[in-house]
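Lab notebook, design round three. We kept the backbone fixed and only want residue identities now. Task for the bench partner: fill in a sequence for the structure below.
Input structure tokens:
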């Protein structure tokens, strides 16, 4: 599945925000809440490696632990990419690529591309992901409109 939006911000600004785990917390709220387990605190910046989180749907319903497996490809041309090669006990594959492409004139194209494998649960996880990534991009637009004031929503 692929979801794309154009944002009225420079691609470099969008990319710097993509690198912040704080962005994930903001754009996922309130659909998903994360508790960082390993490391025990949310890092300031995503670096390549694995991060273990506990997830709760709507902040209440346990959804289990998930590995967020961050990869940042070195050379992707003008399109910058961050990959979460994640997985959990329920979801064998949560392969999410974030792509930021400059469009010029202070605009960029932002794309979420996701591939999920969860056995018999795949259709349900896919539907959740479809809703979740629409929600994420709406939250991105809200954050941009707030001038990246992360406290604007109480997250």
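Proposed sequence:
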């Amino acid at each position: 599945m692929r979801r794309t939006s154009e944002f009225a911000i420079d691609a470099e600004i969008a990319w710097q925000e993509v690198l912040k785990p704080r962005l994930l917390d903001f754009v996922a709220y309130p659909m998903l809440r994360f508790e960082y387990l390993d490391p025990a605190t949310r890092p300031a910046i995503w670096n390549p490696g694995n991060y273990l989180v506990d997830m709760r749907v709507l902040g209440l319903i346990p959804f289990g632990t998930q590995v967020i497996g961050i990869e940042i490809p070195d050379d992707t041309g003008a399109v910058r990419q961050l990959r979460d090669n994640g997985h959990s006990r329920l979801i064998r594959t949560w392969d999410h690529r974030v792509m930021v492409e400059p469009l010029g004139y202070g605009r960029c194209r932002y794309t979420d591309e996701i591939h999920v494998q969860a056995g018999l649960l795949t259709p349900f996880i896919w539907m959740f992901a479809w809703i979740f990534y629409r929600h994420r991009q709406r939250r991105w637009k809200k954050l941009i409109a707030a001038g990246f004031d992360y406290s604007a929503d109480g997250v």
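Keep this in mind before ordering anything: The chain has one domain: 2-147.
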